[in-house]
Amino acid sequence: MDFATRDNYRHAIEKIARAEKLFVLDDAAQGFGGVYNGRKVGAIGDMSATSFFPAKPLGCYGDGGAVITDDGALVEVLKSLRVHGQGADKYDNVRIGLASRLDTMQAAILIEKLKIFPDEIDARNATARRYNEGLSDVAIVPAVPPGMTSVWAQYTIRVQGGRRDALAAELKAERIPTAIYYPIPLHRQQAYKQYPVGKGGVAVSDRLADEVISLPMHAYLDPPTQDRIIEATRRALKK
Q1: Domain co-membership, 88 together with 133
Q2: What three-state secondary structure class fits 197?
């Protein structure tokens, strides 16, 4: 699916939601700080959910997350849901809720990290450009369409021809960490196996699950270290 088609789907979803009086929840777990056609991630849909897990671009030192909205009525519901579904006080439960409060220590860390977050996004984009320049002729590298900005929660390449696992092994031997995020697509997860898929299956998801591998990515990856990663990756893929 190209990005123009994806954008049309997004507008169609918003139109249906308005007609049916539904809300749109945007999954921004890995994209907080990004921009989509002039709209900040977090300002798309009626609500956006994001993660502050330590590995995320804006991460705390433990578990954390947030739901972002400018709808006052939804804010009140969310405040209730985060404290066991409380009503007038903590012993009055008006709905089934959760224990989802962000503790004070994690909030304090995030407040300080927010001050430098724009600079960290710039640094991540510089790192991604350097990777793309060094690897585009040996692997399928990620691309960001015009008018959009990524925060590069991960830097993930595609390695075809069944060479992905060999690449991971060679980089590990050189003490370069890699990760294969989501190696089992949702349609193959036990919890979702009872749900139907299209007649032709989910071929793209299956193929990508066998090809993707993520290289080290963070805002403090200095050029010499990144060059070593690029050179090791090139050597492995040229064999």
Answers
A1: no
A2: coil
